[in-house]
Amino acid sequence: MENINNIIDKKYKYTSLEYIDEEDIKDAKVIYQDETSILLYKELDETIQLFWAADSKEGFMTGLNSLEILVEEKKISGKKVHIKFIPEEFISFLEKKGFRVIAEFVDFWNRDIKVISIDEHDTSNIRRLKEDEYSIAGQVTRNCIGYSRGFTGEDDEWIKEWNESSNSFIFAAEMEGKIAGICCVNLYGFESDKGIVLWIREVAVDPEYQGKGIGRLLLTYAIKWGKQNGAKRSFLACDVENHRGINLYESLGYVRAEGRGEIRMEKLL
Questions:
Q1: Rounded to an integer, what distance in angstroms lies between the CA atom of residue 172 and that of residue 123?
Q2: Which of these, 266, 268, 257, lies nearest to 105 by C-alpha position?
Q3: β-strand 100-110 against 37-43: which pairing, if any?
């Protein structure tokens, strides 16, 4: 396989590679590649993750046909094939191949967070996550699997890496001496004329404590923290069928971007 950076940086009309890091595909293998398209896969315990790019629908289709040959040759069964960043015009083709839409993440923006009206609530139970709490926080996210389409939870290593990465933070809400929910945030856009962005990467509240306003508390805490640290704008993404989450975000001034979101599809082999 050619250099990973070259693959990621190459310009295609359609691509999922633009949105991934080198680390994501370092162990991926090429299924199909020509001048106009490429399809890579990473086989995990329960899933096969596909990474792809193509200049045409036909190129994408050719790559996917090569996947079917690979699956047959290796006699793979019982696993789910997972594809991200599917263009809308590819959906019907993939549905004919047995795939189904499992999530569609749409962007929500607040372009001026200083005008967000935030109710003053006691946030004394919200704090920065501690190093010895990474596994607890990871379990909180995994307890939320199934509560929103496309949400798969996070492993403990991801929690550690996020909390210890530059400009990334995890806030924890405590109730009854337990971590009831977490909010993962990041600051970026320091050189932008439009100002620093507060990215709300993830909010997860343990099902045991849902319905108590913890998600709103975590969000308002994160927004206030973002303002204090120079953020002018805020961004988050949410599945189109997560109506409860969308109502919360819109109540805090976030506005849905126009058009389709990031479509994910899956097929059981």
A1: 11
A2: 257
A3: unpaired
User: 246-263: per-residue pLDDT in tens?
Assistant: 999 999 999 999 999 999
Instruction: Identify the weakest region by mean pLDDT among 50-64, 106-120, 189-203.
Output: 106-120
- Neighbouring residues of 181: CB distance < 8 A, sequence distance ≥ 6: 140, 172, 173, 203, 204, 205, 206, 209, 214, 215, 218
Q: How many residues does the chain have?
A: 269
**pLDDT tens string 96-123:** 999 999 999 999 999 999 877 666 667 7
Enumerate long-range contacts of 95-99, CB under 8 Å, 24 or more apart. 97/64, 97/267, 98/267, 98/268, 99/265, 99/266, 99/267
Q: What share of the chain is helix, strand, coil (3-state, %, to 5)?
A: 35, 35, 30
Name the one residue in this structure whose structure tokens are 């990973």: 4
pLDDT tier, 124 (very low <50, low <70, confident <90, very high otherwise) = confident
Retrieve residue 70's tokens.
Answer: 């690979």
Task: Calculate the CA 146 to chain-centre distance.
Answer: 15
Two tokens, residue 2:
């050619």
3 state SS of 64: helix
In the numeric block, which tokens belong to residue 172? 């924890």
> Of the candidates 135, 211, 120, 207, which has an alpha carbon nearest to the alpha carbon of residue 170?
135
Q: Compute CA distances 247 → 7, 78, 197, 240, whole Å.
A: 39, 37, 21, 11
Of the candidates 160, 230, 250, 237, the one whose C-alpha atom is nearest the C-alpha of residue 202 is 237
CB 44 within 8 A of CB 55: no
Two structure tokens written together for 195: 């100002």
What tokens appear for 162 in the block? 């996020």
Separation of alpha carbons 154 and 162, rounded Å: 10
Identity of residue 212: K
